[in-house]
Amino acid sequence: MERRRWLMLLLMACLFVGSTGRGFRIKHTVESAAYNHTLATILVEYASAVYMSDLTELFTWTCSRCDGLTKGFEVLELVVDVQSCLQAFVGVADDLDAIVIAFRGTQETSIQNWIEDLFWKQLDFDYPGCTDAKVHHGFFNAYNNTIMRSGILDGVNRAKEIYGDLKVMVTGHSMGGAMAAFCGLDLAHIYGSKNVQVMTFGQPRIGNAAFASYYSEHVPNTFRVTHEHDMVPHLPPYYRYFPEKTYHHFPREVWLYNVGFGFLIYEVEKICDGSGEDPECSRSVSGNSISDHLSYFGVEMGCDTSSKCRIVMAPTLASYGNVDNNGNFALSRLPSKFILKMKTEPGVNNTNHRVY
Ligand SMILES: *[C@@H]1O[C@H](CO)[C@@H](O)[C@H](O)[C@H]1NC(C)=O
Ligand SMILES: *[C@@H]1O[C@H](CO)[C@@H](O)[C@H](O)[C@H]1NC(C)=O
Ligand SMILES: *[C@@H]1O[C@H](CO)[C@@H](O)[C@H](O)[C@H]1NC(C)=O
């Protein structure tokens, strides 16, 4: 462990030397037609809420983070992989006129250890359906080969059955952002690129340059928000001298940083170029902060407790879901408004909808 820590510091020093020289310049925010600041400040609250460990409160949208700009959200599916400690929900946001999916980031005891491990993630998996596209198997499998994928797809199908053809917005912070990206790409294949939007916060790199261009072709409506010196978007490392071989972010980054004039500090939101690796955005500074990773738009990200994977569930909740042999489960429900409608409108037959 000591040796690894030392190597990491060395690597960080190299990366820092490699990225200085450009200096830290203040740039005016470039307006982009597609980036929507208001939407970002709403989605970040979903990405924050999915960390909550009390599943009853999350399911009924009464948790302490289930308020503010996300008030009135209806969770339709809550998916929990107990072994891998993964958590996500699917629901409908009336005000956004959209299905919202949020993935929780890592819940390891030490975020520091999790971040250090990111240095060593290999591009070891060929992304199916695209030549030369490589990703990290762990990020991909966390979405595709756990209960996550089937649970999410069930939830989205059900939402579309009930509400018709809503667009889908996928979000997540940190490792949850990585899963959100794989989910968005999967959904774009199923529902078409136009109907899927992805917005991630403090997301690590997940694949190489070939994957990045494949991704952005299929999910063009994607924003990857980064914050100041947040370490995670700098990882796994990008080596600009080996562009074919290394990890490469997909576009489009939006970098949040502070500009201070005396006592006044402004947060600037910079829309970055279409390369995915804009040297004038987060790459223009060293990624050395964990606290910048844990706060986006002033919203607290990360766990609500310092404990590792913890699941709090009232026994009555179990009646909403099925638990598989490994203890993983997906809880499903119909929105309360819909149930109300069912009850008050005679003649409507809802036996086609699954209610656990
Ligand atoms: C930005 O998103 C908000 C929330 O969805 C929406 O009300 C607003 O109309 C959007 N603005 C633009 C310019 O699309
Ligand atoms: C992704 O998951 C689906 C089932 O959910 C499976 O059919 C497919 O083979 C998986 N893809 C890979 C590359 O593992
Ligand atoms: C609802 O539909 C199912 C099959 O589609 C049928 O068996 C059932 O009798 C129907 N119930 C009512 C109340 O119409």
Automatic annotation (TrEMBL):
Residues 1-21 form the signal peptide. SUPFAM superfamilies: alpha/beta-Hydrolases (SSF53474). Residues 100-237 form the Fungal lipase-type domain. The keyword Chloroplast does not apply. GO terms for biological process: lipid metabolic process. The keyword Secreted does not apply. GO terms for molecular function: hydrolase activity. Pfam families: Lipase_3 (PF01764). Keywords: Hydrolase, Signal. PANTHER family: ALPHA/BETA-HYDROLASES SUPERFAMILY PROTEIN, FUNGAL LIPASE-LIKE DOMAIN-CONTAINING PROTEIN. This is Lipase, class 3.
